[in-house]
Write a sequence for this structure.
């Protein structure tokens, strides 16, 4: 049996989730088809190179993203899971959005590491509308300022979203470090 996902909330210092959500709303999220041997789906996504430390041209929320993704989130995940973790893709931030028509299915795999989702979604909606996450016997709606941690080998799915609502999150793959 797969372990239950860990949920840490609130995950960020006061106000940082609001700043990130505002920055995410300005990003050019594009429809993204996911097709691999272990995963398939449709989401909206924007991968961006993170500003270098001290880059004064970067918006404050994005400038704060590098230490968040490379230090804060791995430290929180390491403490919660009892092992040392680091970002699998240093210098890259991956914002995802689930909108009407989005769905996702990742089969159980041999992958190692942890999938971290920094959830930046406002109000929840009924599961009947779709867009809720499921891993094994555990189902949850994306929330606000919550860090969800799952073993990368665990199956993960998002039911087809049928309404005009939006869930936004940062997808942060972590590996042993």
């Amino acid at each position: 049996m797969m372990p239950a996902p860990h949920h840490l909330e609130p995950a960020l210092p006061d106000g940082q989730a609001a700043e990130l959500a505002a920055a995410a709303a300005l990003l050019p999220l594009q429809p993204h088809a996911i097709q691999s041997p272990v995963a398939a789906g449709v989401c909206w996504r924007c991968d961006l190179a993170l500003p270098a430390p001290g880059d004064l041209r970067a918006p404050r929320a994005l400038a704060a993203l590098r230490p968040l993704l490379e230090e804060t989130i791995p430290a929180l995940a390491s403490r919660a899971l009892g092992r040392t973790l680091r970002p699998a893709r240093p210098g890259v931030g991956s914002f995802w959005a689930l909108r009407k028509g989005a769905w996702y299915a990742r089969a159980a795999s041999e992958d190692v590491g942890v999938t971290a989702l920094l959830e930046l979604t406002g109000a929840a909606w009924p599961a009947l509308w779709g867009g809720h996450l499921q891993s094994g016997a555990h189902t949850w709606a994306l929330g606000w300022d919550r860090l969800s941690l799952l073993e990368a080998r665990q199956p993960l799915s998002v039911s087809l979203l049928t309404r005009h609502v939006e869930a936004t999150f940062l997808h942060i793959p972590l590996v042993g470090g």
